[in-house]
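Customer escalation, tier 2.

The customer says the design service returned an amino acid string that "doesn't look like it belongs to this structure." They asked us to rerun it and document both sides in this ticket. The original structure tokens are below, unchanged.
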């Protein structure tokens, strides 16, 4: 899994997924959207993640491709 960002609402996270997956369609082929609600410091936020990687190396390559285009991305583990 990789994390593409953290947002103030589920709707903002979905919007970012649509924007980024639309721009990089082939890169997102076979990847699933995962939005996880989380809390930190009494504040709720929504993590936008992509799942469907065969290995941690594949997740790292995916992130490297996004980062090269100015999109935040970090390999993450499911919690």
């Amino acid at each position: 899994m990789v994390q593409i960002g953290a947002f103030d609402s589920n709707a903002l996270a979905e919007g970012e997924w649509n924007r980024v997956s639309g721009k990089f369609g082939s890169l997102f082929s076979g990847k699933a959207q995962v939005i996880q609600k989380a809390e930190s410091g009494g504040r709720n936020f929504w993590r936008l993640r992509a799942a469907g990687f065969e290995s941690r190396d594949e997740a790292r390559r995916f992130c490297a491709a996004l980062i090269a285009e100015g999109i935040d991305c970090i390999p993450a583990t499911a919690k």
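Tier 2 assessment: The sequence is consistent with the input. The longest helix spans residues 10-23. Strands lie at 2-7, 32-40, 43-51, 74-75. Sent an explanation to the customer and offered a walkthrough call.
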